[in-house]
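Morning run. Coffee first, then this:
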Amino acid sequence: MMATGQELKPGDHIYTKCFGGLYDHHGIYVGKAKVKNPRTGKKEQIENGVIHLLGLDKNGKAKTYQPQCPKCFHESHELRVVLTCLDCSHEGNTIHRYEYEVLLLSFTFKSSGSCSTFTSSEPDVVIKRAYSFLHKKKLRRIQLPF
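And here it is:
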């Protein structure tokens, strides 16, 4: 569910507020994407792909999805960067588009993690970087500093 008046475009930096706004979960909306169907071994297209860091649950363990998502086949049990459908990435929370080039005065009064005074890269560059990060991080577990 998108925030009022917002429509997603590939390359958009999106986020949802989690645990009542305690933290924000960020991702890059890539639109159409290919995911591997574990039953057939073949790649299948999903319409609303998001590359994001699979977060932690309330117990501090990597989130698990049960049963396996019928859209993107996601059921990861590790803390890592993943490609999932939009539904798996936001888990029912409202989706917001991250804002770039916000005026300094506006930036001061916006909630932390929702915007930046910097300029975003072009959408194709953002998507390329997200896929690069996905492929690099998929090969090894992410080490947290705590």
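The chain has one domain: 13-138. Good start to the day.
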